[in-house]
Amino acid sequence: DEENGLLVHAIDPDAAALFAGGEFTWPFDNNGHDLAPILDTPYLLELDSYENRVHLLDASEPDVVRRRGHLTFDDDPIAGWGRGDVAYVAFDSDQLRALDVSHPGNLVDLGAVLELRDVRAFLPEGDHRLWVSSTSSDLWLLDLSDPAAPQILMHQWWTGSIRGLTRVDHYLILSAYLSGLYVLDVSDPLEPVLVNQVTGHYAGGTAHHGDRIYVSSNFVDGVTVFSLADPTQPHEIDTIPLSGPARLMSVHRDRLWIFGGSYYGQTTVYDLLDPDPTPPPVLVIGGLGGAGLAPLGDHVAVGDTYIYLVNPPCREITAVEEGGRVPAPR
């Protein structure tokens, strides 16, 4: 982008160092840029709640990330998810809109397709269905057989603000603020049945790896670790201490990425294959809290005042400098 430039950060976890090239900035100092993945593509949705815009980011070449196209709306985009040629964006006006992203430079709004309030989380169910939850305690199952015209197949309401969704075998685990964890049997996705509720936790976002689920909270420092050896009986086995609440989490290639965890902004990465039951973090970066997070191939993309593309396993690191590729120091 000739106007804004490009900023790419790459991380060598062995050296725990951060390297940067050109700049990719916005004309303000706030982190209102959430990110949403578009599965099976090298693209990301950038949800700009300040300008009410949805941008498509092309990260097929991480050192030349570009905005390919955008749409401007009358309301704030608050959450998104996509697969292939269609992406879905939820807005503060309680509308879920479908976007055609098959031509990256020319996004097309397919219309306000559904009225869904306060959407927070998405989780695909097979190839043609999508779980959607809300901070107003709603759980929906959408039919995406016609991606441009999703339909509501099922709607339930649960006590508490549903901020995370996890699928384990034929169970769906809802992480709900004030209500803890709900375990639903979704053998028949059209008729979820409650089999257990784990109370006593201000549950927020979740990340899943193996037989464990990692649960954050907006009001409790650190991350709580639950065992899912028996998915119907989640039980707390550990905590990851942090100096503040975790804002965002994701598991990417056997590593747990925690954004936030500090009132000053921090990124902490843990190796989930470490046999130590309480392993130290493999990487800590101060000052990067993240407004959005999306795994992307070899990278993890972080939206903040800048966009960062982080390559956790890389050994040889290059950075972009004045249009040319130069080796970065180890």
Describe the structure.
- The protein has 330 residues and is mostly beta strands.
- Helix content is 0%, strand content 54%.
- The protein is built from no helices and 31 strands.
- It has strands spanning 9-12, 17-20, 33-39, 43-48, 53-58, 66-72, 77-83, 86-91, 95-100, 108-115, 119-125, 129-134, 138-143, 151-157, 161-168, 171-177, 180-185, 193-198, 206-209, 212-215, 223-227, 235-240, 246-252, 255-260, 266-271, 283-286, 292-296, 299-303, 307-310, 318-321, 324-327.
- The strands form 8 sheets. The chain has an 8-stranded mixed sheet with strand order 6-5-4-3-7-8-9-10, with no helix packed on it.
- A hairpin with a 2-residue loop joins β23 and β24 (255-260).
- The chain is globular and about 50 Å long.
- The model is unreliable at 1-31 and 312-330 (pLDDT under 50).
Give structural attributes.
330 residues, mainly beta, eight-stranded mixed sheet, four-stranded antiparallel sheet, 54% strand, disordered N terminus, disordered C terminus
Sum this structure up briefly:
By secondary structure, this protein is mostly beta strands.
